[in-house]
Description:
Distance between the termini: 32 Å
CATH class: Alpha Beta
Bound molecules: zinc ion
Order of helices and strands: EHEHHEHEHEHEEEHEHEH
CATH architecture: Alpha-Beta Barrel
Number of domains: 1
Oligomer: single chain
Mean pLDDT: 87
CATH superfamily: Glycoside hydrolase/deacetylase
Largest sheet: 6 strands, parallel
Amino acid sequence: xxxxxxxxxxxxxxxxxxxxxxxxxxxxxxxxxxxxxxxxxxxxxxxxxxxxxxxxxxxxxxxxxxxxxxxxxxxxxxxxxxxxxxxxxxxxxxxxxxxxxxxxxxxxxxxxxxxxxxxxxxxxxxxxxxxxxxxxxxxxxxxxxxxxxxxxxxxxxxxxxxxxxxxxxxxxxxxxxxxxxxxxxxxxxxxxxxxxxxxxxxxxxxxxxxxxxxxxxxxxxxxxxxxxxxxxxxxxxxxxxxxxxxxxxxxxxxxxxxxxxxxxxxxxxxxxxxxxxxxxxxxxxxxxxxxxxxxxxxxxxxxxxxxxxxxxxxxx
Length: 316
Ligand SMILES: [Zn+2]
């Protein structure tokens, strides 16, 4: 049976603190967007992998970064530490708790401690290790065990560090056609996307050389918000909804994975919620028909690794 995976880059303001001009609309009320996303997933009983920036698990004002390799570099300057009015964008234990206690069986995964991009040209292994280790320590305090990782800005690196810290899986990059985090898209690509009747990539998990399961992304549900021409159709579905439905139909009764992802911050306008609701409703319908299952990255990893452990049958 085919599978749908939904992963969520849960970061509040941490996804933007290194940008010169953070997108104001996506930072207006990221906490409300997070809560509404939890509610929407409850409505359709859809579990997701919430890849949470570890810093959000800290209680307000507990931003102690003294032993972090980037302490003193300016990296943490945006964190208001004890300024409670501004702290809501940098701390979110209440929000993480909402995910943990939701009825939908969400997985809490990891999106690094402070959204450091795991790029070997920019950081060394000690920084990657500090980012991962701090999250594992925090999760431990929360009685959680982190298994799945989503790389900030989808830059896949230092996978050996994940393996050493007990992770089992990560979201890999979308094969071929798309690079979801690029600032702008060539118009031809956007046009192709808008009219295409072929689904986005249907993926399958692979075990990498570190023993980690790579569950690549198929489609960012808000990939055209940044720097791309707006393609709101006059009639019919939004192009992203149409692409998502094509992918869902492709995996229904099949055996691939349609792996969608988004940030809570992507939900800015009511039309954004409508778009997501339409995709979730479509997933729920196909699931209720018994034609696909909805799984987390952790579920996929477990099954993939279990299958590997089955000894090969010998004959003769
Ligand atoms: Zn991010």
